[in-house]
Amino acid sequence: MSGPENCSDFAYGQVHDAGGLSMTVSIFADRPHLREELREDIGAAGLHVRECGPVAELLAGKPRSLGEVIFLDCPSLDAASLAALSRLDMRAAHSGAHLVISTSVDALDDVFGCCDQSNPQILVDPSRSERVIALGRVLALRPNLRLRELNEEDRLTLLRLTEQVGRIAERLEKLHADRKAHGGSAFRLESPGNGYHGETAHGDRLVRSARLELPEPRLVREIIRHRQLRAKFFDGDLFADPAWDILLDLTAARAEHARVSVTSLCIASGVPPTTALRWIGQMTSAGLLKRVEDPADRRRAFIALTDQAAEAMAGYFAETGVRSAELV
Predict the structure, then answer these.
(1) How far apart are alpha carbons 207 and 197 in whole angstroms?
(2) What is the pLDDT of residues 192-209, one digit of tens each?
(3) CA torsion angle for 280, 283, 284, 285 (degrees, to 10)?
């Protein structure tokens, strides 16, 4: 990839598709077979490919519009490409373009650290079907698009590809309903218990007399270990619960005052990295997780529980009365 100084020349067209015009897509990947697969899939969706070439072409030539969607494949990154990716993320955020990035587990932390503005879809060693799902998610965000009519074979293929996303959506829909039912929060507010005092004669606000504490990290790690042992005797998919595994891992880390990288959290989730990233993104939107920049290196970022999520986890352990590692 060329040096980062040319990144300031990035320019994107405004997204105006209310008239039903199909979106335009640019593809930048160094692997020829990947470029061709993406071109075929984008064309099959009835969209127009504006550019398709190696990553170096992203920085070459005069400023031009790259369209409403940019697919970027970067399985490895050097210093120049890190800077370029940061600029691309900023430009995509300002223009409203949708950025889809495929990368590797080894480069995931670097890619995640660079992309803090455009909320891109990050795919880790994706299959072709996962890239099609990513395209479908982009299309779902754009109203008034006219897509070609699907035949029965297309519909069956699309159903298989989106089955996994559908399962996630069902859980997220319930989470969204819970948030609306409880004042837009992802947390349930119960009536004050013994740990609270009501208003005083002076009209002071309701306050807690004692803050609930998280359990010892050793206990949480033991619970995690017991959960992982189930996969030794049963199909792991039977017990897949990435949201809870993510919360448990971050609860232990918070109690240990440890930082958790996005790669580490993907591993802890027990599901493929691309699926884990979707959960992390949705849980962040729900106010459960937050992105924490590394003060020593702005190119790195970590994931942590929000204060409300930590409080909810402390309340959960207090309510269940867990005091030993017997609960799994």
Answers:
(1) 6
(2) 444 444 444 444 443 443
(3) 130
